Amino acid sequence: MKICILVPNISGNCMGRAYILAKVLSQMYDVEIIGPDFGPGLWPPCNLEGISYQAVPSQNYIQYLYSAQKLIFASKAQIIYAIKPLITSYGLALLIRLHYKTPVILDIDDWELGMAKWRLRQSKTAIVDILKAYWVGWTFFLERKIKRADKITVSGSFLQGRYGGVIIPHGRDTTYLNPTNFDSEKLRSTHRFKNEKILLFLGTPRPHKGIEDLIKAVQLIPNKDIKILLVGANHQDEYTQQLLSLNEPRLIVIPMRPLSEAPNWLTIADIVVIPQRASLIAKGQTPAKLYDAMSMAKPIISTDVADIPSILENCGFIVPPDDIQALADKISYVLQNPKTGHQMGLNARQKCIKQYSWKIMQKKLINIFEPYNQKTVSKNTVGTV
To answer: Which CATH number goes with the domain that contains 150?
Structure first.
């Protein structure tokens, strides 16, 4: 069976979720990723070796909708897996289903409506950006069309409560992401870390992710050996520039790196810190970096936001969101009690293997996709008439 994973922007970090879904599905089906290239090319952390993908050059989303329909028609996909309820993914998928009766499964890993409301609060001009693919008007429109998907998958309980569907976690390859596969001493030496205590934030910096809170928390701790290692920044990004302008000497900012390097940075870390803020954007998110850290058996400190407390139950440390002093105290506690932190990391890895591994994802995805594999596909295949 041929599955087309339709992404809203092959250049954006939505590719992180699409990449994992493609890797798991490709063990069972023929999978291809298709999406617009709004520049500059494939999202840098992704290495799609073994996964077929096509980036559609696009000056604007209207041009893309026309070009992509022809491309998907030629691909002979039997089912479309749309990533996010956005015009360049789900909107296009609904158009294709209208013409070719191709089944559409929608994956939702963010509360796009919450993001749209946040953007409107930040800038009232967002309502008039109709020529942009991320125009908030499309978000409100497609929010009302979500139930039209043949099936829905989501990344967390908030989204499931709102839209229904099956929770597919941001699962991880726990065989590869295994601390016994990596040499901590060698990696620390390579990156010239000796006695430093490394607090790792791995991912795309955004205001709702609480990086500024982490910086302020570290400033409250007298231990000068503590370093904040931020891996995944785009130095051209306005928010990254804002973080750099703080001139915090204990902040080390590393540009976006391939996803395959994630275990190296996790191996270096003493603690992984994910200080999500309480916001409309964070409400529907489940940070994928949680599962990376869990699989690598790292001590994790995060906040009481969305599903994070239930995911880290008995295997991580939770503080209230936006509470800088509580975050500082917890960092100090974990650094002063390494045995406790180590045991929590081991607990996290075992939980990740049992609940959030690729094997678990595979079982859930088979239940969703296999019924379509049993049907006669002549009427449900893009490109057949």
So the answer is: 3.40.50.2000
Burial tier of 133 (Cβ tally within 10 Å: 0-12, 13-18, 19+) = buried
**Residues 44 and 159 placed together within one structural domain of the fold:** yes
Our count of domains for the chain comes to: 2
Q: What is the pLDDT of residues 256-276, one digit of tens each?
A: 998 889 999 999 999 999 999
- Rounded Cα distance, 135 and 142, in Å: 11
CA angle 75, 78, 80 (to 5 degrees): 85
Residue 76 has a pLDDT of 81
**Closest C-alpha to 196, from 262, 249, 254, 263:** 249
Contact (Cβ atoms closer than 8 angstroms) between residue 153 and residue 105:
yes
- Structure token pair of residue 104: 């559409």
Is the backbone of residue 297 left (phi > 0), alpha (psi -120 to 50) or beta? left
Give the residue carrying structure tokens 């804002």.
242
pLDDT band at residue 124 under the 50/70/90 scheme: low
Q: Does a structural domain hold residue 383?
A: no
381 domain residue, yes or no: no
Q: How many CB atoms lie within 10 A of CB 115?
A: 19
Task: In whole angstroms, give the CA distance from residue 152 to residue 167.
Answer: 9
**Which residues span the domain enclosing 214?**
179-355
147 and 49 part of one domain: yes
Residue given tokens 């497609």 in the structure block: 142
Amino acid at 94: L
Same structural domain for residues 22 and 97?
yes
pTM over 0.70: yes
